[in-house]
Amino acid sequence: RVQGKARKVEQFDSMVIAQRSGRPVRLGEVVNVRDGFEEVRSLALVDGILRAGLERGVKPLVEIGFMPQALSLQPEPYRHSWPKELFTGWTTPPRDYERWGELVYRWAQHCVEVYGAAEVESWWWQTWNEPNLGYWSGTPEEFFKLNDHALAGVRRALPGARVGGPHTAGDGGEFMEKFLEHALHGTNHATGERGT
C-alpha cells in the first residue's frame, strides 16, 4: 500500500461534494508502466477516484497524462524537485508512440470493462494539460503525434468516446492555433488519415 492514497481519494471526495452541480472533475492520475509495458500499475486509485465521483453524479473529464517514466524520452530525472527543477521526465514525449497509444488503449479498455461502455461514453477524455507551458517539453509537432495516438487508443477501446485535445493556459495562443490546424487538416500520425 502506498502511503497517501487514501488521502487522495478523500481529497477528491471533497472536490466532488463541492462540485455537485454536475461540472466535470479533471483526473490527472496516470497509469504507470514497468519493464517497458508488461505490468500496468494497479488502477485501484484511479478506480476509487472514479467511483467516488460517479456515486455522486459527477461525470469524469479524464486527463490522459503525464508521461510514465518507462516511456519517457528522459527517464532521469523523472520526479521534480520544487521549486528548483519542475519540468523533468514526466513532461517529455514518449520514446515509442505506438506503446503510448497501447497504454492509453489499455486504460480506456479497463474503464469500459469496469464501468460499461454506455457509462464511459458519457465521459470526456482530454490529452494532457497546458502543453503550451512547461508541462510539455517536446515540440508542438511531437505533441500532435502524442495526441493522435492517445485519441486513437481511446477510440479503439470505445469508438463512440468523447475525446479532445488539451486544456491550455489562457487561449493557448500560437500553440492552439497550430494544434487546431493539425486537428482539422493535418495528417493523423496514428491513422494516416486527414485530421483527428
Query: Helix- and strand-based class?
Result: alpha/beta
What percent of residues adopt helix (DSSP H or I)?
A: 40-55%
Q: Gap between N and C termini, in Å?
A: 39 Å
With strands numbered from the N-terminus, the spatial order across the biggest sheet is 1-4-5-6
pLDDT average, as an integer?
81
Poorly predicted residue ranges: 1-33, 35-40
State the total count of DSSP E strands.
6
Helix/strand order, N-terminal first: HEEEHEHHEHEH
Output the radius of gyration: 16 Å
Summarize the biggest pleated sheet.
4 strands, parallel
C-alpha geometry: globular
Query: Helical segment tally?
Result: 6
Characterization of the model:
With 196 residues, the protein is α/β, with parallel strands linked by helices. It has helices at 5-18, 44-54, 97-115, 117-120, 140-157, 173-185, and strands at residues 25-27, 33-34, 39-40, 60-64, 124-127, 162-164. Helix content is 40%, strand content 10%. Helix 5 links the parallel strand 5 and strand 6 (162-164). Helix 1 packs parallel to helix 2 (44-54) and helix 3 runs parallel beside helix 5. Mean pLDDT is 81; it is low at 1-33 and 35-40.
